[in-house]
Amino acid sequence: MLSKSVRRWIGLAFGLVGSASVWAEAGYYVVTPYSTPGQLSVDLRYWTVDSRDRDAVLWPEAGLRYGVTSRWTTELFVSFIGPTLRQQGVDSWNWQNDWLLTQGQYSFDLALHTQLIHEPDEGNLIEFGPVWQTEFGRLQINANLFFERALSEPDGTEAKYQWQVLGRLRPGVRWGVQGFGELGRLGHSEDPHSDRLGPVLKLGLGEKAQLQAAYLWGRVYGRRAEMFSAQFLYSF
Hints:
Distance between the termini: 32 Å
Oligomer: single chain
Number of strands: 12
Strand content: over 45%
């Protein structure tokens, strides 16, 4: 578990404002609508945030994902945090569920995303919102709008968004651009707005594995920062 001084340093690194003990993390990967019934996957993730005058903060994550039905995918994962890989503590436990609301009857796919987040000694949060995807020629386009709220503190609901455009280069290789942003708590105009975007590469590694990596520039909670993210998914 991270000490209080380390958590305070992390908070300062992102320039967070207000006195709430529970705060939302910056989005770093795009949720996509899909479900493969009976498929179990190991989900390994790694992402960093590096602001101009602060050291990088690292978030390795590990989880298990399972396709319960053709419409419902569930995943349990744990997120760690620290200034180095040797200085890591549990940041949060997460239970993510995605339900497909459409299955091919429209020119787009729509799903409902929910994520329950437990931060030890901090509190509980819930994230929810629509997940949308469509195809246009060789392009795959994603756009998501999420709302996040602390369950233990009446401090408002934060709105945030994700988007992505991927083009097919050849079978198993896609590249494009993705973006994320936080709009602040609803009804709190003084909250800093943040946005960032950058290139993303997605590789299919045979029939069972895929790797995605992205590098983003922009603002994280009002402070200039750069982000790197990587996700490796292996399915059984």
